[in-house]
Amino acid sequence: MIARMKSNPRAYVVDDDPAVVEALASLIGIMGYDVNSFTSAEEFLQAYRPGSPECLILDVRLPGMSGLELQRELRRRGSRLPIVFITGHADQSAAVEAMEQGAVEFLEKPFQTRVLLECVEKAVALDEENRVDGSNWTDPGPSAGL
Amino acid sequence: MDGTTAKSVSKGILRCDPNEPRASKCFSDATAVSSDRDFAESVIETAQAIVLVLDPAGRIVRFNGYMEHLSGYRLDEVRGKDWFDVFLPVRDREPLRDLFSQAFDDVPTRGNVNTIVTKDGRERLVEWYDKPLKDAEGKNIALVAVGHDITERVQAEDALRRARDQLEIRVDERTREFVALNARLREEIAERHRSERRERRLRDELAHVDRLTMMGEMASGLAHELNQPLAAIVLQSEVILRLAGDQGQSIPPELRKSLEFITAQAHRAGDLIRSMREFVRHAEPQRVALTVMEVIEDTLPLVQQELRESGIVLDVKISDPLVQVRADKIQLQQVLLNLIRNAVEAMETSDSGGRRLDIATRIHGAMQEVAVRDTGCGIPEGAAGRADRLFDAFFSTKSKGLGLGLAISRSIVEAHGGRIWAAPNTDQGTTFTFTLPITNHDCKNEIESPRIRRG
């Protein structure tokens, strides 16, 4: 296994409610993650450059492209970016689809912070595993990225 | 006068100089007597009535030209014959013979009517005016009868009477028809009013249901919106904790406690919203194995405020907390809420000191019983004796509400294989009880749906 300089884990936050975005960004920032926040899926897609290790905290209900649609789009592009879904709307069918499409977890607001942080850790760990497998689409190759 | 005149007279024409005063010139000489007689003859023959003379035996002495014309008989055909035999119908002969002899008793008869039969067999009705003719010694020598043919008149009278009767009958019929029509119209109007009232009530109920649906939608939207700031509150409280901890010192316990309190309250708000929203949104029933206790626990927060405000003391006794039934949680919640709300309303008028709500469960055979007991005003008057009417749709003794709560509750309970009933308490108030079949303890959940984590 090739040793790599560990960069800070990165977390993307996509939620259209500014209060939630700010609170999430603050908390996850304090926990040592690099946080990038967006209030729409389109903004995120434009800015997203795969890095490592990382995860996505994603709201279901968004203006324009929805959270589920973003999940599908990422898969279509071959990305295995782990996603933790959060929602203010207890939608059973959305939960089912999200999980079937490989989400790490589906949380309903207000959720316990402990649970959220656990999920984020789990997601980032998953991303690292994927990276080691070489199955992350952004991995340019084992010899790079030292 | 000469013979010509006599002949003329017997035909009823008196030839006389019209310019001469009658009394003097025409009857002054020897022929005066025969002139008088001729005159008398003319009078009789001219008279427009029957002039009939019968002898005391009832035989025809003479009758006038009017009678000849009316009866079809010439006088010489029937002179001397028995009047009754010739002219009367068989049925009348004897009675009228009696009447005839009475007429000779010097009682003038007038207005008797009888039938005479003409030569060609037709019957005519004649009204008679009779008087006996006596000789110088006062002996009856003849009966002089004057008769009026009243056949047409009588027929006309009959026809008129019949017409009048017919008219009365028709008027009666018409009146009856109108009365019946009137009654029908009144009934139709009443029915239309009833329809209109029914329609109004249905429209009101529809509007109510519409409002409920709309409120359901609003509640759903509101819930979603409320969850955002709640999430933010929880997260920020945690941020404060972490930031405070970061300074290297331990956080004062009061500060930690306060922040944890804030977090707990936010979660509590979230739970309330979730309960209410699930309740409102609920679409398809999903039967899972659950305990009645957990349903009661989920339901109580929704009514705690109401109970507090009404000063109702609540007591919950779960005899077998782990016993499971297979049921749809939201629907059971609905039943419980309905019973609890009814209990609260029943106790509105009770002494504020004595308001108690007891919820108790027990096992009874293969069923779990849940009893909701109140100390309220009891089963309403309209349903007394027919307690099952309470559960009928649209039966309501309250001025507000659809009257559907208990009907829905019954549907739900019976769909689950249970029963629901109400009974008055021995002291005060009512107990509503429903049963649910107990399920096996090792049955898995029917629906293996990924439970949305609340954390």
Topology:
The complex is a heterodimer of chains A (146) and B (455).
Chain A: E1 10-14, H1 18-30, E2 34-38, H2 41-47, E3 54-59, H3 67-76, E4 83-87, H4 92-100, E5 105-108, H5 113-133
Parallel strand pairs in A: 1-2, 1-3, 3-4, 4-5
Chain B: H1 3-10, H2 22-26, H3 31-46, E1 50-54, E2 60-63, H4 65-71, H5 75-78, H6 83-87, H7 90-103, E3 109-117, E4 123-134, E5 140-149, H8 151-246, H9 253-281, E6 287-291, H10 292-309, E7 313-318, E8 324-328, H11 329-346, E9 356-364, E10 367-374, H12 405-415, E11 420-424, E12 430-437
Parallel strand pairs in B: 7-9
Antiparallel strand pairs in B: 1-2, 1-5, 3-4, 4-5, 6-8, 9-10, 10-12, 11-12
Helix pairs in contact in B: 8-9, 10-11, 11-12
Write down the overall geometry of chain A. Answer: globular
Helix count of chain A equals 5
Distance between the termini of chain B: 157 Å
Characterize the overall form of chain B. rod-shaped
Radius of gyration of chain A: 15 Å
Largest sheet of chain B: 5 strands, antiparallel
Enumerate the strands of the largest sheet of chain A in spatial order, edge to edge or round the barrel.
Answer: 2-1-3-4-5
**Overall pLDDT level of chain A:** 86
Low-confidence stretches of chain B are: 1-15, 22-27, 442-451
The amount of beta strand of chain B, in percent, is 15-25%
Largest interface chains and counts: A-B, 31 and 34 residues
Say what oligomer this is.
heterodimer
Strand content of chain A: 15-25%
Can you list the strand order of the major beta sheet of chain B?
A: 2-1-5-4-3
